[in-house]
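hi! just following up on the protien thing from before. the input was this:
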Amino acid sequence: MTVAFKSEEGKKEVFKYYELLLTKGSLEYEELVVNTSYGETFILAMGNENLPPLILLHGSGLNSAMWIQEMEEYSKEHRVYALDMPGEPGKSDENQLPFEGDYFANWLNDVFNALSIKTSSIVGISLGAWLATKFAIKYSNKVDRLVLLCPAGIGAQKKSFIFKFIFYSLFGEKGIDKLYYKINGDKHIPEIMLNYQKLIAKHFNFRKVTIPIFSDTELVKLTMPISLFVGGKDIMLHSKKTAERLKSLLNHAEINFIKEEGHSIVNQGDDIRIFLR
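and the predicted 3d structure came back as:
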């Protein structure tokens, strides 16, 4: 198995910045560690334990720090658990699980069991949305509501992205800044998060395999309420095809095609909370 970080020193640098992001907002949160069949899982938790649970799943090349501001709003109506996915640049087990098979879904089921969660709503972005979908297909009785932000696995990945990545990389740090600007739908990312993403990119072993596409047979098993958010400026995934395919298979799915958004759809919290109610 490939591990998340290229070196121990790089991991320490990423974790140091992780702690900076968590303490910057002065938010009241808990840090939990639970055991699974795939090693330890690190979790940021917030909200009253008597409220309905909500699972947050980050995208590839990130960790639960991406949710820290949204967690405060979600925690007013939910007991929120932001999970660091295994094999990603967070504090969970470093081994990268295969995309093929049920490894990811079974890992998330282990987390549910460790937290004594019978059912929960799930919000996932990109790879996290792929995982949320995979889990909801196998363990549909455990998912109350499903929110998919620019999900992988429904529409194809854009082959042109790798060429854009190579092109912008030729221009050094300014080129990388421009790439993240394009990923974010031609919008600037706050400097503190941009620097963090660049730090992760320096030390993280990004996966070099294509994320599997779900079959029609798999997707029609998603009978729970679903809300999809995709951006018209997504340079990584075919967002329009994602929206069209999900709508054609699941009449009950709520489709939100946001023309001016890119791949990093992180500002839809108000609409998501309405859906979760």
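Residues 6 and 203 are 5 Å apart (CA to CA).
Residues 8-24 form the longest helix (17 residues).
cheers
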